[in-house]
Amino acid sequence: MKKPKILVVGSSLKDKGGIVTVIKNIEQSSINDHYKIKRIETYITGSILNRVSIFIVALFKLIYSLMSFRPNVIHIHMSEKGSFYRKAIILVISKLFNKPVILHIHSASFDEFYNSNEFQKKVIKFILNKADKLIVLSKQWEKYYSNIVPKDKIAVLYNGVYRIEQKFKREHTIPIGLFLGRLGERKGTYDLLSSIKKLKENGVLGKFYFAGDGEIEQVKQLIKEYELEEIVTVLGWVNSTQINDLLKRVDFLVLPSYNEGLPMAILEAMNFGLPIISTYVGGIPEVITNSDNGYLIEPGEIDELTKALTFLLKSEELRIEMGEKNRNIILKRFDIQSLMKDLSNIYSRLLQS
The whole model's pTM is what? Predict the structure, then answer.
C-alpha cells in the first residue's frame, strides 16, 4: 500500500527558533513510517535579497511539487506578519490545485497582528477560513481562533520533545538560572535583569546565563549599568547541542515573557528535569502550575519574579522536587512520539474527508 504524501512548508532547517525545532522534531519522528513527506523551505534569516530569493524559489518548487509529487495534504507552518503573507500565497496556490491545507500556527502574538487594522483583519479571516484545518499550540489559542474560524476546523497539537531517560546531578555552590530565547522586551529580558539587580541588593546568591540572539548589545549595556557582570553571562545564540549542554548544567529556566504560544524552551527544560519560572501567557499555564512544578507571574511583575527566583535559588530540595514533576509531565503529555500519533490522526481525517 502506498504511503499518503504530505508536503511540509516552513522555514529553512538552517534557521533559528522554536518553529524550526518543531519542524525538525516532526521530520525525525515515527510519522515517516506512515507518510511520505517532502519539505519546501520558504524563509531563512538574512538580507532582504536572500529572503526574497528563497521565497521565489519556494514558489517554483511548490508548483513543481504539486504537479509531480502530487501531495495528498499540504502542511504549512505559519507565524504572523511576513510569515502570514508568504504562507497565504502558498495556501492560495495549493487551493488552486484543490489540495487540503493545514495551517500550523506558531505565532506568540497573532492576536496583536490580527487586530492591527480592519482591512488586515478581513484578509486574515479570509485566509484562515480557506484552510481545511488549523493546528494551534494550546487550548487557550483554540479558544481565541474559534472566534475567527469554526471550532471544528481547529485542532490542538502541543509541541513535544524526545524524552530523556537520564537524570542529571546539579551540585553548584551557587545555583544557576538560564534564560533561553530571543533577548528583548517581548521575552521579558529587561524585567529579568531588573529582578536580578534586586536579588543582588537583597543578598540572594545566584548566577544566570542569557542564551539567545536579539538585543544583545542593549542587554550587555544594562548588565554593565546594573553592575551585574559577575552574575550574568550573555552567551548569544546557541545551537541545539549547546542548549542540551546548558540544560544539563543549570538549575532552573526563567522565561518571563509577555506573549507566547507554547515555548519549546520550556518543554526542553522540563525534559531535563528543571523547574520553570514563567508567566500566565499563551499555553504556558496548561503546562506549568504555579507553586507546583514551577512559578507563574503576570508579565512585568518584577517583585513577584524576584520572589519566585528567591524561592528556587534558596532551596535545592524545591528545585529537585519541581524538576522531577516536570520530567513526569513530559513523559505523560509531551513525548513527541505520542504527539505524532495525534498529528497522524489529523492527516488521516483530512484524507478521509
Answer: 0.89
